[in-house]
C-alpha cells in the first residue's frame, strides 16, 4: 500500500492527498528552465565522488551540477520533469540516474547515500507527509551523511496572500492543486530532531516597489545524520 493511503487527514484534505502529487506533471508542462543552480553548500560538506540524491529533482537545475562532481541520482513524482532533465543532461554529456518515485516511498536500501539534497520540496507536503518523508530520508542516508534543506519561510509575502484554500497551519492549496507550506525555524528544528544541526538560517530579501515592501523568505539548513 502506498504510504499516502495511510494518512488520516481531514475530509477537506482527502482528495488533495492524492491530487496534489498528480498536479506536478501538469505544472512541469509549462514551467520554464531557470538554468543551472549552484551547489556550493553541498561541495563544502561532501567529498568528490560521493553518492548524492536530489530528492524532488524536477527539471534538473541542481542535478546537472551534482552530476559534474558526484554519483548523482534524481527522483521526482513528475515524469515530464524527469524526461526534460534526462534530455538536458544528455546534451551536456553528463549522466545521472533518473527515477520516478515519491519521497514518501523511496526505492532505496538503507544507508545508500552520503548526501541528500531537498530544495523547495518539503514545502509542498502536508504535515504528516513531511514527517514521513524525513523518516524515509533518515533511513537511506548513511551515518554521518548530510541532508541539505531549503523551503519557504513564514515571512514570505505569498504566505496566505494568493487565492488559496487554507488546509493546515501556514499550509495552503493553490488553484493549480499544489500545496504550499511556510516553515518557521522552530518547526524545522522539530522536523529534523533526529539530526545534528550544522547550519540553520533565514534568508530574507526585500524589494521596495511604489512604496510597498515585497519580502521573500527562505529557510535553509544543513543537517547531519548521527
From TrEMBL:
Superkingdom of the source species: Archaea
GO molecular function: S-adenosylmethionine-dependent methyltransferase activity
Entry annotated with the keyword Transferase: yes
Transferase listed as a keyword: yes
Residues in Methyltransferase type domain copies: 53-149
Keywords: Methyltransferase, S-adenosyl-L-methionine, Transferase
InterPro entries: Methyltransf_11 (IPR013216), SAM-dependent_MTases_sf (IPR029063)
GO biological process annotation, one example: methylation
Pfam families: Methyltransf_11
PANTHER family documented for this protein: METHYLTRANSFERASE, UBIQUINONE BIOSYNTHESIS O-METHYLTRANSFERASE, MITOCHONDRIAL
Protein name: LysM
Organismal lineage: Archaea, Methanobacteriati, Methanobacteriota, Stenosarchaea group, Methanomicrobia
Encoding gene per record: lysM
Amino acid at each position: 500500500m502506498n504510504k499516502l493511503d495511510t494518512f488520516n487527514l481531514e475530509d477537506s484534505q482527502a482528495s488533495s492527498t492524492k491530487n496534489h502529487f498528480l498536479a506536478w506533471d501538469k505544472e512541469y508542462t509549462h514551467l520554464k528552465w531557470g538554468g543551472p543552480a549552484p551547489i556550493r553548500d553541498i561541495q563544502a560538506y561532501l567529498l568528490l565522488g560521493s553518492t548524492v540524491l536530489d530528492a524532488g529533482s524536477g527539471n534538473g537545475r541542481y542535478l546537472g551540477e551534482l552530476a559534474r562532481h558526484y554519483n548523482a541520482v534524481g527522483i521526482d513524482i513528475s515524469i515530464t520533469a524527469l524526461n526534460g532533465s534526462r534530455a538536458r543532461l544528455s546534451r551536456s554529456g553528463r549522466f545521472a540516474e533518473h527515477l520516478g518515485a515519491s519521497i514518501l516511498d523511496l526505492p532505496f536500501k538503507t544507508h545508500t547515500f552520503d548526501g541528500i539534497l531537498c530544495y523547495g520540496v518539503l514545502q509542498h507536503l502536508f504535515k504528516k507527509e513531511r514527517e514521513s518523508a524525513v523518516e524515509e530520508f533518515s533511513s537511506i542516508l548513511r551515518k554521518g551523511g548530510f541532508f541539505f534543506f531549503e523551503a519557504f519561510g513564514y515571512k514570505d509575502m505569498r504566505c496566505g496572500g494568493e487565492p488559496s484554500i487554507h488546509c493546515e497551519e501556514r499550509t495552503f492549496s493553490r488553484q493549480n492543486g499544489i500545496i504550499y507550506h511556510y516553515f518557521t525555524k522552530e518547526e524545522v528544528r522539530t522536523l529534523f530532531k533526529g539530526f545534528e544541526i550544522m547550519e540553520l538560517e533565514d534568508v530574507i530579501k526585500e524589494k521596495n516597489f511604489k512604496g510597498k515592501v515585497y519580502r521573500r523568505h527562505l529557510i535553509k539548513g544543513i543537517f547531519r545524520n548521527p
